[in-house]
């Protein structure tokens, strides 16, 4: 029987981190002919991931330019992918999550009537503009996809509520598979400042912030709250903030946080550095999606710098709280976790609502089942 030609498509840092273990799984299995195409919507932040996981894509559209608009990204991906699909004619295209690459990848495949599999399917806030444009990207991919790999049962229910019930598998999130390969007790950081931090004597807080819906006033409120925190707890906390390369984010962070001794504004970290930093930290403050999944698995409390989340599982488990984007609320919630051992203990326990490290195996098995290569459906992930 011919091998199944499966093409994975991704373009940004989080997609790459979460698709990397799946690329490896497809490469490992004899039933698949695996092709990897990157759009390079991100360049540097993508390349470090490819490097860490030792992935050499067969195709690289190299579309990144500084401060691109959503229309530019989408149209460049669509046009570039057309040629790639004509050349390879995959049986299945796999896209991940909710970026512009994800949406364009699914649409380009649909235009050529190639089956689409959506990894990390079924996350929803129900608010069209938040996160922007991710909520609509993932909703539209949900309509275009033939296969839906939901991390959790609640993601599956979101799809069911939209009438999507065929080709749905509950697999866990592939990010938990990735975490299993990166976190090590004896890890040495290449970013020397991180080796020097006093992880026992100080409360090391990991910060990230990059979302488009936070641009402007919300991001200003967030940065102001972080400044206040750094000053109020000068002797107790170290804020480590690897700043996203977006010029908007760079400006927002540096204009408010430069010049404080206990705030470390550093370059984006490689995925293995980030995972090991979280593992050694006191807590995380972030508007990132991925960090909301990783930190709970490592037993670290998370304050979410957004008004809502499409990842309610860790909120229900008690390790994640929505801090919002109002400076005074963010400061108060962080201060509570710094001041009160009891409040901290309530949140700081390891939970794994997002996966058991076997998501990629289930996805590969689900693909084989869909294409009639096996009678056995993968067992769903249960948290
Ligand atoms: C994108 C995704 C977002 C995801 C985020 C992960 C969309 C619309 N947004 O947002 O869902 O959460 O990635 O980080 O798809 N830049 C560089 N080098 C890089 C990466 C980015 O210089 O390696 C700069 C460029 O100026 C680029 C800008 O950052 O134009 C913004 O990148 P872009 O991919 O448009 O949006 P993100 O905010 O990164
Ligand atoms: N990450 C990283 N280096 C950094 C910041 C984040 O490797 O400097 C990782 C993080 O551990 C997670 C992913 O990038 O796996 C999250 O990506 P991002 O916050 O850019 O996007 P989102 O998850 O919000 O879509």
Supply database-style keywords.
383 residues; six-stranded parallel sheet; binds uridine-5'-diphosphate; 16 helices; globular; binds uridine-diphosphate-N-acetylglucosamine; 13 strands; alpha/beta; 45% helix
Radius of gyration computed on alpha carbons: 20 Å
Q: Which range best describes the helical content: under 10%, 10-25%, 25-40%, 40-55%, 55-70% or over 70%?
A: 40-55%
Number of helices: 16
Q: Shape from CA axes?
A: globular
Separation, N- and C-terminal Cα atoms: 36 Å
Protein structure class? alpha/beta
Strand proportion, as a percent range, falls in: 15-25%
Uncertain segments of ≥5 residues (pLDDT<50)? none
Give the strand line-up of the largest sheet: 3-2-1-4-5-6-7
What's the rounded overall pLDDT mean? 97
Biggest sheet details: 7 strands, parallel
Summarize it.
This protein has 383 residues and is of the alpha/beta class.
Describe what this molecule looks like in 3D.
The longest helix has 19 residues, at 70-88. Helices cover 45% and strands 15% of the residues. With 383 residues, it is α/β, with parallel strands linked by helices. It has a seven-stranded parallel β-sheet, with helices on both faces. Strands 10-9-8-11-12-13 form a six-stranded parallel β-sheet, sandwiched between helices. The model has no long low-confidence stretch (mean pLDDT 97). α13 links the parallel β12 and β13 (320-322). It contains 16 helices and 13 strands. The protein is globular, with a radius of gyration of 20 Å. The structure holds uridine-diphosphate-N-acetylglucosamine and uridine-5'-diphosphate. Uridine-5'-diphosphate (UDP) binds at residues 13-14, 17, 208, 210, 242, 268-269, 271, 274-275, 288-291, 294.
